[in-house]
Amino acid sequence: MSDLIVGAGLVLVFEGLMWALAPQMARHLLDMANQMPPSTLRASGWTAVVAGLILVWLVRG
Length: 61
Prior knowledge:
It is a single chain. The chain is mostly helical. The chain has one domain. The chain has helices at about 1-20, 25-35, 40-60. Helix 1 crosses helix 2. It starts with a helix and ends with a helix.
């Protein structure tokens, strides 16, 4: 359970860094995502999930 909390904390760190260091770029990325069709966003999300699972499996395997 502590690994899950650490993982969630790291997500917050990386998300926060993007907004703290490059807020204009973050807004631009949000605008781009808003213009994409839902199917593209869904496919990108599943790709990120699979990549994350593979990464965790390789490290923790």
